[in-house]
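Q: How would the structure tokens look for this protein?
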Amino acid sequence: MASQLLTALLVTAAFAAIAYALGMISRSGALGGLLVGTTLYASLGARGFAVLALFVIGGSLLTRLGYRSKQRTGTAQEHGGRRSARNALANCAVATSCSILAAATGSEALTAAFVASIGAAFADTAESEIGQLFSRTPRLITTLGKVPPGTDGAISMPGILAGAAAASLTAALGLSLGMLASPEHALLVAIAAFLGTVADSLIGALSPRVGNELTNVLCTLVAALLALILT
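A: Here is the predicted structure in token form.
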């Protein structure tokens, strides 16, 4: 146990240092990522950490894609795209809880919930970053009326496709790593992850004052709960 925890700390520290050096995360993001990553690695091993790494790297690349164009429209991620500790905790608190419970119980359903929650966080980022970049006419999910890019609860076809792709990619990785029992389970996890982003959009449209961080927590929570039900 001690050796696994040490390995988790060393691997996560190295990853956080590289991510910080590449401008993916801020100093607080590095600390938050160190906490999250170490817990995930200690709980689910390298496989769980690989799923987290997919989200961190993929989300950062999508954030940087067309960053100057997003700046001109006022939709770019603040601080040059560097994610903070608040981002890390909001997106990964549910996944971290699932990983701890999965390690303690050996539950395959909780492992699936972990993958779904990370998939939802990745899908939500993909929908936001791609939708803001490639869609000129986003629509509010509740009324389908046209709204400015970056509006809480806004959806677009490019964003929806990107979100579905991110959710599917995360589930496929979970399947390839042996974290999901079958392709059918992977499909259900991908669906759960995508539906988490639908909940995110609905919450954003109906209660924009909730705030982005809490909305992200609810997005990943819905995905995890759906994965528990479906798998």
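The chain has a mean pLDDT of 90.

Residues 2-230 form one domain.

Upvote if useful.
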